[in-house]
Amino acid sequence: MRRWFRKHPWAVLGAGSGLGLLVGVGMLIGALATMAVRSSAPAAFFPDLPLHATCTDAGSNFSMATGQVADGVEGVFFLDFLTGEVQCWVLDRRTGVPCGYYVYNVLQDLGVDPANKNPRYLMVTGLAPGTGGSARSDSLLYVADATSGNFAIYALPWHRGA
Question: For residue 31, what are the CA distances in angstroms to 19, 41, 120?
Answer without folding.
Answer: 18, 17, 60
